[in-house]
UniProtKB/TrEMBL annotation:
The reaction(s) this protein catalyses: cytidine(34) in elongator tRNA(Met) + acetate + ATP = N(4)-acetylcytidine(34) in elongator tRNA(Met) + AMP + diphosphate
Entry EC number(s): 6.3.4.-
Signal sequence extent: none
Chain coiled-coil ranges: none
Protein family per UniProt: Belongs to the TmcAL family.
Keyword vocabulary terms for this entry: ATP-binding, Cytoplasm, Ligase, Nucleotide-binding, RNA-binding, Transferase, tRNA processing, tRNA-binding
Protein's name in the database: tRNA(Met) cytidine acetate ligase
One cellular component (GO) term of this entry: cytoplasm
SUPFAM superfamilies: Nucleotidylyl transferase (SSF52374)
Role played: Catalyzes the formation of N(4)-acetylcytidine (ac(4)C) at the wobble position of elongator tRNA(Met), using acetate and ATP as substrates. First activates an acetate ion to form acetyladenylate (Ac-AMP) and then transfers the acetyl group to tRNA to form ac(4)C34.
Species this protein is from: Psychrobacillus psychrotolerans
Length: 404
């Protein structure tokens, strides 16, 4: 069987994701689609709208054959490490190719961009350092340096100011660094961009737009046009059980407690907390009772909103610099959900896997990366502040991979 990999968060699974999934199967002529999916905390440093089990069931119901969890350390990392962890797992799963959505839509442009940055690596890094000395954020410094070195070329390059283009570039970079034979493909995003609001006249909206509507108090019936019926069913069941969706506003009371009870020195030991941000975070937590005002106080030109949220995610999960430095690549393959085809594919490659296949976490509980996943999952459920969330603590030990 021929397998293609995709890297997803599905927060939540919507019609744009369905388009990507369907076009991936057509473009790659694959028998199996494997999704590497973030767990309960995401790359932009925020809690997932609904948990990984609900999102993985949505994925399989919509046509994904096999969902694998991207470990916490990679799921909450900057783009390069997020991509490295995901592509490493897809390669380990014997995928023939991987296919990502992008604003660009042209694989050739991504390849030209990768070649340019490879040949001008020293010049690029020097320019990045120069821009960062001016006090701007790392992502903006990357973009400014990229614009500078790309001025002299006439080939078609990727716009690396676009979020999905950035991830796509890093997927290709990761595959090259791994010396993998896995073949990249891309599909252009349609209608809605990553940060766009949801428009009532459209049937495709960004996950960001859908979440915004829900957090503004819109009912699920008012966003059902943007997602398959199976996703609406999953969100309805979640809301019925839990009464609310995951967000930083909901998690903030627990986060604030953890910040205030810590010393500034302890906060400085947390992964990604750097350049005195522990002081700003601690001071803001002392005075702000809601997440938005807290973030408004500590945001700056130096640090993007996303990077600050990743710091806060690591504070919430107590993930330290020392732990981060010990992690290089994923150390296991953990299935979350699959259909019969995905199950058959996994059985067919099981003996050839170079990584342990973890179906029962109790059998692999000594793995430090897996322990991070388990702890992050439990803390996510506690952050929901509901009886349902409390009952889900320890669920990683109780729930086996879902077979639909």
């Amino acid at each position: 069987m021929k397998a293609t990999g995709i890297v997803v968060e599905y927060n939540p699974f919507h019609n744009g994701h369905l388009h990507h999934l369907q076009q991936t199967r057509i473009k790659t002529n694959s028998d199996i689609i494997i999704a590497v999916m973030s767990g309960n905390f995401l790359q932009r440093g925020e809690p997932a709208l609904v948990d990984k089990w609900t999102r993985s069931k949505m994925a399989v119901a919509a046509g994904v054959d096999l969902v694998i969890e991207l470990p916490y350390a990679f799921a909450t990392a900057q783009a390069s490490d997020f991509a490295k962890g995901a592509i490493f797992l897809l390669d380990a799963l014997k995928c023939h190719s991987f296919c990502f959505g992008s604003e660009e839509g042209s694989l050739e442009a991504f390849q030209e961009t990768y070649n340019l940055l490879l040949t001008k690596k020293d010049e690029y890094n020097t320019a990045i350092a120069s821009y960062m000395k001016k006090g701007i954020s790392y992502p903006k410094a990357l973009n400014e340096a990229y614009n500078e070195i790309s001025e002299a070329t006439t080939v078609r390059l990727v716009d690396l100011s676009k979020p999905n283009n950035i991830l796509g570039y890093h997927y290709i970079q990761a595959a090259n660094h791994l010396n993998s034979d896995i073949k990249p493909e891309t599909i252009q995003r349609v209608v809605a961009n990553y940060h766009d609001d949801a428009l009532k006249t459209e049937t495709i909206a960004s996950a960001t737009g859908i979440r915004k509507l829900l957090f503004e108090g819109q009912k699920l019936s008012e966003v059902n046009a943007f997602m398959p019926s199976t996703s609406l069913l999953g969100l309805t069941e979640w809301e019925s059980n839990n009464k609310s969706f995951g967000s930083w506003e909901q998690f903030y009371p627990a986060l604030r407690l953890l910040i205030i009870r810590s010393s500034r020195e302890e906060l400085g030991q947390i992964a990604e907390v750097t350049e005195g941000m522990e002081n700003a975070i601690w001071k803001a937590a002392k005075t702000h009772t809601n997440f938005q005002s807290f973030m408004q106080q500590i945001k700056s030109k130096r640090f993007t909103w996303t990077r600050i949220q990743r710091m806060l995610t690591h504070i919430y999960t107590d993930f330290t610099w020392n732990q981060l430095r010990e992690i290089d690549f994923p150390t296991y393959i953990r299935p979350l959900a699959m259909n019969k085809n995905g199950q058959a594919y996994l059985q067919s490659i099981k003996k050839d896997l170079q990584l342990p296949l973890v179906s029962r976490v109790a059998a692999s509980k000594k793995d430090t990366q897996l322990q991070l996943d388990i702890k992050a999952a439990d803390l996510y459920y506690l952050g929901l502040q509901s009886s349902y969330g409390e009952s889900m603590v320890g669920s990683d030990f109780r729930i086996a991979p879902i077979i639909e």
